[in-house]
Structures are given as structure tokens and as C-alpha cells.
Recover the amino acids of this structure.
């Protein structure tokens, strides 16, 4: 920071956004070439918290890797549990009891709401509004309490097992979930009145960070980024897994392609997740939550298997290559924000610094998941 | 859609196309193409509005290489022991490197006659219709090179960089293969089967 | 923050002076004031009083801000140090003063050191001419209004020098923002003030307040005979004073999600503390001016209640509360949005107001007189 790297020909300078910066939500560094307040060129620099989870997967048994999945996207950890469990269950042809599937859906959707709420608070914080995050955290806290009562963890969940879940939910959890949904239903109009309809908010998000559907496809961006650009794709609908086909819910899609569209997708997804949870609680069947036939020392047959789930930030894919032993031969974790962030450099050219940060926030980055 | 892609892919010379059972594998079409045809495959899928989900590698190091890796590890250990021993004997006067040198040479000799392969895997998906296509490409392990598809899918840029980080696979024509996730001066490839920290 | 019991014991003696003595002192000063003879003594005493008032306000407005924001955010705020956390500002002050004044490598030292003073000193100087009540004014100057604006325009120089001298890119961007923002908002603010001067025919703040004697409908805020746009003028003035003091939603100079801490990124200890005090002193000045120009100063809103400095303080602190309320409710605008608001909305509006007022005040009586 001590010298101004002014070149002879161009009147630009380099600004390092991060690795420690209030807006990067973690250890992400973006090297910005600036012309005054305009960004000429942006290059995200990753890897500050790279932990080589994929190598760890090759060094420990299938079940031992489950806790690692929660350390990727610590805000939506259960989706990652789910994705990994689905891939291994597919490889080892393990059936999951119906009650366990319902519990999985309920907890994953609760986790998705928690993740979106945190994003909502942090995003407004990025834009300089400091109050909403406290309200969002208050609501999120209720979810964490609920999930803690059943999974034993508040952030890095390791709740799913191959063939079910580790712990059955009880009546207090069900009652608590219903209570929470009632509470959040009451809160959502407040959020919309105070934040969504706020004139400054609208001015800062409308037409900022446009991503065309073609660009989304070329970069493989998924999740709310994709749905905010008018592409109706959600793994839960397009490639149904678990018991999602049994629920009636909509996929919010907005055609505006801007930050506001991505914001709206996430806000609407909270409502849809609440719908799913309500239906799942109503339909919850009795029965075991764990298949009994799963061997302790799991050895899936040789071959490679792929499984994708809709995590809070997009498609989490898990490619598993088994050589018939009790450890994975190769474990590829396809994280959504890695692809979502890769379009940042191209999309924010010529943007103002403040707009670029509003745009970056709308991508909902979680750095451990990018760096893996 | 599956049939359409299958038909178009079959026009690529020496492409091995297998239709897989989705429920068991998680994808519909498995296409193996030679290294110089990955761009063609990408172009076919691009024209059909597929998006690229991920690019990754698999190190298919066989028994021979595993043996070599074990030998290498043993040699390293022996060198370390010898160095320790020498250091203990000479009480820090002699340099331990002189002891390690002959062992390293013998390892390099074995490396010459290896014929192992690495695989690059491209996962494609379609947003409107459920159709997952896996394109694979085998490259020799000692000179892993294949053309980049980042011209067709700009999103492949980072995925290929990551694959280069982890496996040392060179994507010819890639704009920037400097380490993405690893430290900027990293000269190792951690996902190789003969890598040990 | 839970202080050590020992810390608490040490701090307890401070409770009495802050809670009891300060108001007593202020009240005492009010009654003693008319007895103080003119001349040097009066100047000295008023100087001390003004500095004490500015510093005390800066300290306790931080406390108030923290309490207000906490309650807006469903929290409690400072509560451990002293009753309701009232000693918190004292502790904060001690902390800031005991911190090392870090001067980073490569800074322009004179500029770096003088910048915080350039923010704080003009703000304190402005207090000299603020009439808290008819008598309670350090120096009743005939061009008081002009003097305050002369001092207020120095403020931006402090931000610019601080940012420039820091040798930090974030700080330089922030300084550039602060300058363009201050230049843009000084224009509508001054046009509004010119309008007011046209109505009041004076630059003397005391006289302006006296003109608003009587009940609240005599305040200039509701003086529709002068201009039907008076409430709009008040709004313009208020928005501009927000922008001039770099308060949210116009705090672009210290937008922490973009520029880390803006122009004071490199400041530590009291360097930062002085900037902070300057900011709050400026808020007090802005709110005081709004009260004097539009809300009748020390005049009671209804005629059966006695006038006095308490009315002035009540109105001023209410405006300050509004400033805080806005800060904790709204997100930040962008520089472009901010400049657009000034150049495309506020300046035309204030010009229309100026034209309308000059018509109402100067031309209309002429026409009436002629008929």
C-alpha cells in the first residue's frame, strides 16, 4: 500500500481488496486495477484458506470424511452433508428410510433459511445498513437452537449418515419448527418493508452487476445467480432427489439479471423453504431413521458416481471414484461459489467500486467453499 | 437429448460412448475422447446449450507406480535416517546431502519405463432438460497435456487452473496456469497418488 | 464488555461528577453568566465552557449513539461501566489517550498531524457564536451565521489533508469522495441560508431567534408568509448538514465495506479520537443551526411555558437523535447517487425556493404597496 503504482501510459492504480477487508467476508483477495473509482480490471486471488479436502477424502474412510463436508460451506453445511451422503449411497446402493429422508429435507431447508438470513443481514451490512443483520441473526439463532437440539452442532453439522440420519427428531423439534415458521412469517413483511422497499436499497441494486443468461451458462454459475438471470433451474425440481418431488413448492425466477433479482430470489426462497418444511412436518411418516444394513466398514463397488444437490448457493456436486476399498480413490467436490465467483472478473469491468461490492455481495460468497 | 448428443459425439473419431444408467451412476452419457478432441466435444455441447459444471482429474497410477512411490518414500526415509546418522556421527561437521544423492538417482532410473495414465473429467449438465454428460480424456502420466476448453467455456478457466494445481496437467493454450488454490510458488501437485506431504 | 471489579471500583468516583456535577455546573453557569463582567474574563470563561461543551458532547453523544443504535437493533448497548454505561465514554477516552499514536511509514507528517485538528478546531470555534439562550452566548457576533459557515468549510480541508497525507489508497479515494461531496452539498445549503437571510434581514443568530418569538407557528419552519416552501427548505438544510458532517446515509468518506475506514484508516489513538470528536461536534453545530434557523432556538413552542436554554437543548438533541435514527435505518448511498441528489434535486429545489422567497419578500410587498 505504500507506493502508488502509476504506470507511464495509463492513469490507473492497483487496489488490493483483501485478504483482510470488511466486504470480502473471509480471506478473499481481489486485485483491482482502478481508474479513479472505476474498475478497469479485477482479478480474484484465491487459496488463502485452501485445505485440500479432496486429498483428505483419499486418506480417510468414507464415513470419516463426513465432518469435512460441513467445513466447506459452513453456512449451509447440511446441504453438503446431503450431497456427499447421496453420492456414497448411490455408490454403495444404500436405501434410506422414508422418515430419514423427510428429516433430511426438513433440516436442510432450515439450514437453507439460516444461510439466506445470514446472507441477507451481511449483504445489507455491505451496503452500509447495519441494523438488519441483528434481526436476521436473531431469527437465525432460533434455527441454530433447533438444529442444535437434534444434530448436536450449531454450525459444522455432521448429522447425516449413509443410510439415514444420526438422531431422530422429537416433538419439541417439530413444535419448535412450527413456532419458528410462524415467527419468520411475521418477520418477512418487516424485512421487505424496511429493506426491500427502501429507496436507497433499490437504487443500489437495480441494474447493478448484470449477468446475462448466456454468461451464466458459459461460466457454469448456478443457484440464485442463475435463477436471478431468468434460468429456471433448481436441482430439487430438475433432478429430483430425496423426497422433494412430494412437496409442492415453486422455484423463484427473476428475469432482470441484476443484483436486485438475485436478492429477490433468495428472499423468495426463504418463503418456499418454509412451505417445504411445513409440508414435510405434516407428512412426516413414522419409522426408523437409519437403515440397519449399512456395514461399518463401507466398501462401495468399483466405479465412479456423481451426485448433485441444490445447496444454498447453487449446485453442489460430488464425484466419487471408488476402487472398492474403504477409502475413496478420488473425491471431487464441485462447489457452487467457485464457479459463481469466476465470472466476477469479467462482469465487474468498468463498474464503480461501490457497485462492484454490491455485486460481489449478491453472489453470496463463502470462502472455505471456494478454496476447499 | 441423450440420443442427439450420442449421435453427434459418435462423429468424433475414436470416441467411446457409453450410455449409463442414471439411477446408478448419476449421469446419462459417458464419452471418452482422445486428447485432441476435447475442444470438439465441448463445442458440440456448447451448441446444445449445456453448461460446464466442473473439470477435474483422476490419477490412474497403476501398481508399478505405486511400487515406485513406496520405493521413493522408503528412499527418502533412508536418506533422512542416513543424514541423521551422519550428522550424529560427524557432530554436524559433514553435510548430509552427500549421503542422499546416490539413492535419488536410482529412483529416477525406474521412472523412465512407466506407462501410466491420468484422466481429465468434464462434467456437463443441461439447465432445461435433465441430461448429464461426462466427457473423459486419458493422457499419459509423464507428459499430461491437452488443449484447453476455456475458449469455449470461459468458466473452465479456473477449473483447469485448479486441475493443473492438483495434478500438474497442462492445458495448452490456457491463458494463465499459475497456481490458483495452492501457494503462488507451489511446484508440487498434491492429488498425484505418489505425492506425500 | 465486563470490566474487572477493580476497574469498577476505580471508576465509581467518576459517576458523581458526570451525572450530578456537570448539569449543576451548566445550570450554575447559566445563572452566574449575566454577572460575569465583559472583557478578558468573559472570553476566557466562555472559551473553557465552549471547549468543555464540545468535548463533553462528543463523548456523551458517542454513548447516546451506542444506546440508540443498540435499541434500534434489539440490543442493550453499554451497560457495564457505571449506571447505564454512563462512564463508558470516560473509559473510552482513557483508552484512546493511552494508545500509541502510530505514524505509518511514508506519510506526510505535517499534513497527517494537522488534519484531525483542522476538523475539530473549526467546529469548536463555531460554538462561540451559538446562542443557547438570549444571554448564554459566548460572543454575540453580528455576522455569526457567516462565521459558522466560514469555519464549517475548513472541515473538508481536514478530511482532504488527512486522506492525502496518509499515503493510503483507501484514504485518498475517501478524501476525493469527501471533497466532491462537501462541495456539492455546500451549494444547496448556502442557497438555503441565503434564503433565510433574506427573510430575517440579519446574520446575527440571536436576532434570528428573537424574530421567532411566540408560539411554534412563529418558527421559521412554519413561516409560510415568507415562503410556502419553508418546510422544504428545512429538509434541504437538514439533508445537507447530514452530508456535510459525513453522516450515514452519506458517509461515503468512511464507507467501511468499501474503503475500510476511509480517510482515517491510518489514524490510531487520539488521532482517530480527535477526528471522532470533530465529527460529533459538527453534528451538534449542524443541529444547533437548524434549531436556530427553523425551530425557534431557545423559544418555547407554546407561549405559556417559559423560554430558556433547555428548549434549545431539547430541540437540538431531538434533531441529533433523528440523525442517529437515520444512520441506523438506512443503507449507504453511492457517490453517484449522492451527487445526483445534490445537483439534480437539492440545488434546483433550493434555487426555486430562493426565487419564490425573493418574490414573496421583496416583490410581493411592492405590488401590494403599489395597489
Amino acid at each position: 500500500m505504500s507506493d502508488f503504482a502509476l504506470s507511464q501510459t495509463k492513469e490507473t492504480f492497483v487496489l488490493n481488496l483483501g485478504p483482510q477487508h470488511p466486504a470480502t467476508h473471509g480471506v478473499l483477495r481481489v486485485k483491482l486495477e482502478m481508474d479513479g473509482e472505476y474498475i478497469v480490471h479485477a482479478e480474484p486471488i484465491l487459496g488463502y484458506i485452501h485445505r485440500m479436502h479432496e486429498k483428505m477424502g483419499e486418506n480417510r474412510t468414507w464415513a470419516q470424511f463426513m465432518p469435512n463436508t460441513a467445513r466447506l460451506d459452513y453456512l449451509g453445511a447440511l446441504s453438503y452433508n446431503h450431497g456427499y451422503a447421496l453420492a456414497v449411497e448411490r455408490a454403495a446402493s444404500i436405501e434410506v428410510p422414508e422418515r430419514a429422508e423427510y428429516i433430511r429435507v426438513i433440516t436442510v431447508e432450515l439450514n437453507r433459511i439460516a444461510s439466506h438470513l445470514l446472507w441477507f443481514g451481511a449483504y445489507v451490512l455491505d451496503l452500509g445498513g447495519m441494523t438488519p443483520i441483528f434481526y436476521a441473526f436473531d431469527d437465525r439463532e432460533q434455527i441454530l437452537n433447533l438444529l442444535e437440539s437434534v444434530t448436536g452442532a450449531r454450525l459444522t453439522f455432521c448429522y447425516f449418515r449413509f443410510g439415514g440420519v444420526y438422531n431422530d427428531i422429537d416433538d419439541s423439534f417439530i413444535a419448535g419448527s412450527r413456532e419458528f415458521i410462524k415467527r419468520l412469517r411475521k418477520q418477512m413483511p418487516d424485512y421487505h418493508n424496511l429493506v426491500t422497499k427502501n429507496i436507497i436499497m433499490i437504487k443500489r441494486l437495480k441494474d447493478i452487476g448484470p449477468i446475462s443468461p448466456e454468461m451464466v451458462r458459459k461460466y457454469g454459475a448456478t443457484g440464485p445467480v442463475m435463477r436471478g438471470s431468468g434460468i429456471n433451474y433448481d436441482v430439487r425440481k430438475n433432478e429430483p432427489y430425496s423426497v422433494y418431488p412430494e412437496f409442492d413448492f415453486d422455484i423463484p425466477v427473476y428475469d432482470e439479471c441484476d443484483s436486485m433479482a438475485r436478492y429477490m430470489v433468495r428472499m423468495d426462497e426463504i418463503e418456499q423453504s418454509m412451505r417445504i418444511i411445513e409440508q414435510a412436518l405434516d407428512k412426516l411418516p413414522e419409522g426408523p431413521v437409519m437403515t440397519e444394513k449399512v456395514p461399518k466398514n463401507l466398501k462401495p463397488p468399483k466405479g465412479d458416481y456423481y451426485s448433485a444437490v441444490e445447496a444454498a448457493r447453487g449446485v453442489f456436486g460430488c464425484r466419487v471414484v471408488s476402487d472398492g476399498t474403504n477409502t475413496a480413490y478420488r473425491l471431487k467436490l464441485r462447489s457452487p461459489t467457485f464457479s459463481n465467483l469466476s465470472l466476477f472478473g469479467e462482469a465487474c469491468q468498468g463498474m464503480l467500486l461501490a457497485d462492484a461490492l454490491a455485486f460481489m455481495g449478491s453472489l453470496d460468497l463463502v470462502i472455505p467453499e471456494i478454496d476447499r | 437429448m441423450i440420443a442427439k448428443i450420442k449421435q453427434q459425439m459418435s462423429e468424433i473419431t475414436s470416441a467411446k460412448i457409453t450410455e449409463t444408467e442414471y439411477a446408478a451412476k448419476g449421469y446419462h452419457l459417458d464419452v471418452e475422447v482422445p486428447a485432441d478432441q476435447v475442444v470438439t466435444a465441448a463445442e458440440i455441447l456448447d451448441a446444445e446449450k449445456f453448461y460446464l459444471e466442473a473439470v477435474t482429474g483422476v490419477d490412474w497410477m497403476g501398481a508399478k507406480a505405486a511400487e515406485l512411490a513406496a520405493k521413493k518414500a522408503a528412499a527418502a526415509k533412508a536418506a533422512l535416517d542416513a543424514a541423521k546418522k551422519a550428522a550424529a556421527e560427524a557432530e554436524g561437521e559433514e553435510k548430509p546431502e552427500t549421503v542422499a544423492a546416490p539413492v535419488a538417482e536410482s529412483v529416477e532410473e525406474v521412472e523412465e519405463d512407466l506407462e501410466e495414465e491420468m484422466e481429465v473429467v468434464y462434467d456437463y449438465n443441461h439447465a432445461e432438460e435433465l441430461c448429464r454428460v461426462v466427457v473423459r480424456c486419458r493422457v499419459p502420466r509423464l507428459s499430461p497435456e491437452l488443449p484447453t476448453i476455456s475458449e469455449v467455456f470461459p468458466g473452465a478457466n479456473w477449473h483447469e487452473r485448479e486441475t493443473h494445481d492438483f495434478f500438474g496437467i497442462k492445458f495448452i493454450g490456457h491463458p494463465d496456469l499459475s497456481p490458483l488454490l495452492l501457494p503462488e510458488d507451489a511446484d508440487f501437485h498434491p492429488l498425484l497418488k505418489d505425492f506425500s506431504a | 464488555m465486563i470490566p474487572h471489579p477493580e476497574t469498577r471500583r476505580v471508576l465509581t468516583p467518576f459517576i458523581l461528577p458526570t451525572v450530578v456535577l456537570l448539569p449543576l455546573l451548566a445550570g450554575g453557569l447559566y445563572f452566574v453568566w449575566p454577572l460575569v463582567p465583559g472583557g478578558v474574563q468573559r472570553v476566557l470563561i466562555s472559551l473553557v465552557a465552549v471547549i468543555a461543551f464540545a468535548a463533553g458532547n462528543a463523548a456523551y453523544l458517542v454513548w447516546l449513539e451506542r444506546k440508540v443504535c443498540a435499541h434500534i437493533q434489539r440490543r442493550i448497548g453499554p451497560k457495564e461501566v457505571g449506571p447505564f454505561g454512563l462512564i463508558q465514554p470516560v473509559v473510552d477516552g482513557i483508552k484512546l489517550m493511552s494508545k500509541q499514536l502510530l505514524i505509518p511509514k511514508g506519510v506526510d507528517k505535517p499534513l497527517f498531524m494537522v488534519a484531525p485538528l483542522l476538523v475539530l478546531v473549526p467546529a469548536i470555534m463555531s460554538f462561540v457564536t451559538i446562542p443557547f439562550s438570549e444571554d448564554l452566548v459566548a460572543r454575540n457576533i453580528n455576522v455569526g451565521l457567516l462565521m459558522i459557515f466560514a469555519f464549517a468549510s475548513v472541515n473538508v480541508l481536514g478530511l482532504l489533508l488527512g486522506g492525502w497525507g496518509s499515503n493510503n489508497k483507501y484514504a485518498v479515494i475517501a478524501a476525493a469522495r469527501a471533497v466532491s461531496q462537501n462541495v456539492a452539498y455546500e451549494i444547496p445549503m448556502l442557497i438555503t441560508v441565503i434564503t433565510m437571510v433574506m427573510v430575517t434581514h440579519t446574520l446575527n443568530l440571536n436576532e434570528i431567534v428573537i424574530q421567532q418569538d411566540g408560539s411554534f407557528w412563529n418558527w421559521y419552519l412554519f413561516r409560510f408568509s415568507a415562503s410556502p416552501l419553508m418546510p422544504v427548505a428545512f429538509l434541504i438544510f437538514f439533508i445537507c448538514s447530514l452530508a456535510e458532517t459525513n453522516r450515514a446515509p452519506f458517509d461515503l468518506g468512511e464507507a467501511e465495506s468499501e474503503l475500510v475506514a476511509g480517510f482515517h484508516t491510518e489514524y490510531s489513538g487520539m488521532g482517530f479520537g480527535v477526528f471522532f470528536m470533530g465529527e460529533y461536534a459538527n453534528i451538534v453545530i449542524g443541529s444547533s443551526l437548524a434549531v436556530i434557523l427553523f425551530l425557534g432556538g431557545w423559544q418555547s413552542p407554546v407561549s405559556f411555558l417559559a423560554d430558556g436554554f433547555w428548549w434549545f437543548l431539547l430541540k437540538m438533541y431531538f434533531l441529533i437523535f433523528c440523525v442517529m435514527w437515520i444512520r441506523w435505518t438506512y443503507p449507504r448511498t453511492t457517490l453517484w447517487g449522492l451527487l445526483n441528489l445534490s445537483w439534480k434535486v437539492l440545488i434546483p429545489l433550493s434555487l426555486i425556493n430562493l426565487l419564490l422567497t425573493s418574490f414573496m419578500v421583496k416583490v410581493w410587498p411592492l405590488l401590494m404597496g403599489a395597489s
